[in-house]
Design a protein that fits this description.
The longest helix is centred in the last third of the chain and has 35 residues. The protein is of the alpha/beta class. The protein is globular. It contains eight helices and eight strands; from the N terminus they run βαβααβββαβαβαβαα. The chain has a five-stranded mixed β-barrel with strand order 3-7-6-4-8, surrounded by five helices.
Length: 253
């Protein structure tokens, strides 16, 4: 008989939490502060945003002393994501079931699945207060509502990100359990300023380019700031809920 989810400590199954650098990383760290009181081995790691910067980061990471000497038991990727489904609102939390890379050839899509057992455990310890969904990964920031709608039609996905597939391919190849959670920061009807020119090769946002692009579409930018702040607030609260789950695991087990 397999053990019940109540008997499995979340802290024994996840020891790395990856979060895109910047505001998302700060929100997660603020939410997880309670864990500092406990002797946990969980590391929160800020990663570069963007498909190629993150893919390069993973190649470098697997050759570090920390990774080689202490291979991850389980990885959780957290952050914001763009909403694609009409049923997903800003602030909704999505736990990935599967993800694929956006491709022109939709007849041969390669869907990567998250670890079922780890995802079920996260879902259980969050008291099932999170949606399960399907995601797609883009090599660039999706900025137009029209493009979002086209993705919905082609993939029937709920959320779009830029780091999901690199991590899933990396973890599936190395047999590392992985779960992914995204908080929706813009909905499927929302046009965004074109932030792609502001995203550098190192995965950071250039503040001058960011300001310039946002000034080109001030109304869209104001809308994005408001929805992103809401998403970040939910991400922080989600991190607090996870921190409680982690610390309860440490105390109980």
């Amino acid at each position: 008989m397999s053990p019940s989810l109540d008997s499995i400590a979340l802290s024994n199954c996840i020891d790395r939490i990856l979060v895109p650098q910047g505001a998302e990383y700060k929100a997660v760290c603020d939410g997880l502060k309670i864990m500092r009181q406990f002797n946990t081995t969980i590391k929160v790691i800020q990663i570069p945003a963007g498909f190629l910067p993150f893919k390069y980061y993973l190649k470098q990471w697997q050759n570090t002393h920390d990774f080689i000497s202490h291979p991850p038991k389980g990885i959780l990727l957290m952050g914001l994501g763009g909403g694609l489904s009409p049923y997903c609102r800003v602030g909704d939390k999505i736990l990935y079931q599967e993800c694929c890379l956006i491709s022109d050839n939709t007849s041969s899509l390669s869907w990567q699945t998250c670890d079922i057992n780890l995802s079920n455990l996260v879902y259980h310890h969050l008291n099932q207060k999170i949606l399960r969904g399907r995601a797609v990964t883009s090599s660039h920031i999706i900025t137009s509502a029209q493009e979002k709608w086209q993705l919905v039609q082609r993939y029937q996905a709920d959320v779009v990100d830029m780091e999901g597939i690199p991590l899933l391919e990396f973890c599936n190849f190395l047999k590392i359990p992985v779960a992914v959670i995204r908080v929706i920061s813009d909905n499927f009807q929302q046009d965004l300023p074109d932030l792609n020119p502001a995203l550098g090769a190192d995965g950071s946002l250039n503040p001058w380019q960011l300001t310039l692009q946002m000034l080109k579409k001030p109304l869209n930018s104001i809308h994005l700031v408001k929805s992103s702040l809401k998403g970040l607030g939910i991400l922080k609260q989600l991190s607090k809920d996870l921190a409680i789950a982690f610390t309860v695991s440490v105390v109980k087990y």
